Amino acid sequence: MYDNLKIITYPDPRLKQPSVPVSDFNENLRQLVTRMFELMRQAKGVGLAAPQVAQNIRLFVMNATGQPEDDRVYVNPILSEADGDEEAEEGCLSIPGLSVNVIRSKHLRMQAHDLQGNPIDQSASGYLARIWQHEYDHLNGTLLTDRMGPVAKLANRRLLRELEEKYAAEHPTPSPRKPTKKR
After folding, report:
1. What is the topology classification, in CATH, of domain 13-170?
2. 135 given a catalytic annotation
3. Which of 12, 100, 157, 159 has fewest C-beta within 10 Å?
4. Mean pLDDT confidence for 161-178
5. Torsion-angle region of residue 42: left (phi > 0), alpha (psi -120 to 50) or beta?
């Protein structure tokens, strides 16, 4: 069902759309999650949000260690109780080649649901909290480009322009038709 699913890249406008809550915890959702883990591993990532595979729902998968037993699925997450700040380098599977420093909360709480619809209530610090925040941003249509300061934007303008040109070449927009005069 999701064999043709792929990671979409900047500046695809679907990455900027806020996602809608998941209401059906069914086999379709399980198949999507399985494919998302495959894509995340192929790309050597630690997290992947549904909008990054053109699925506009509030869901992300992650694995901070690469060990299969550490696979995690979060459906309809809510982040709260953010505490402290720390800056660290981040990349994004939807913006290949980009790596920028981002300030994130050091510690936070997440309430969500697992793949079966059971509630999850967890707290995390450091790297795990950073992954949660990065993927949560995707669910709200926020990209690393939105978190970059002016210096990072300047430093990465060539890369972003190349990604924009590549996207435009792969997704040409039809030119508007000239109106015909009625006689």
Report:
1. Peptide Deformylase (3.90.45)
2. yes
3. 157
4. 85
5. alpha
Of the candidates 8, 6, 1, the one whose C-alpha atom is nearest the C-alpha of residue 141 is: 8
State which amino acid sits at residue 89: E
Token pair recorded at residue 82: 């953010």
Confidence label for 174 from pLDDT (cuts 50, 70 and 90): confident
Residue 16, CA distances (Å) to 28, 34, 58, 100, 169 in order: 24, 24, 13, 19, 20
Q: What residues contact 143, with CB distance under 8 A and at least 6 apart?
A: 10, 15, 16, 92, 94, 95, 137
DSSP letter assigned to residue 53:
G
Q: What is the DSSP letter of 156?
A: T
Domain residue spans of the chain: 13-170
pTM for this one? 0.91
Active-site residue, from 69, 86, 89, 135: 135
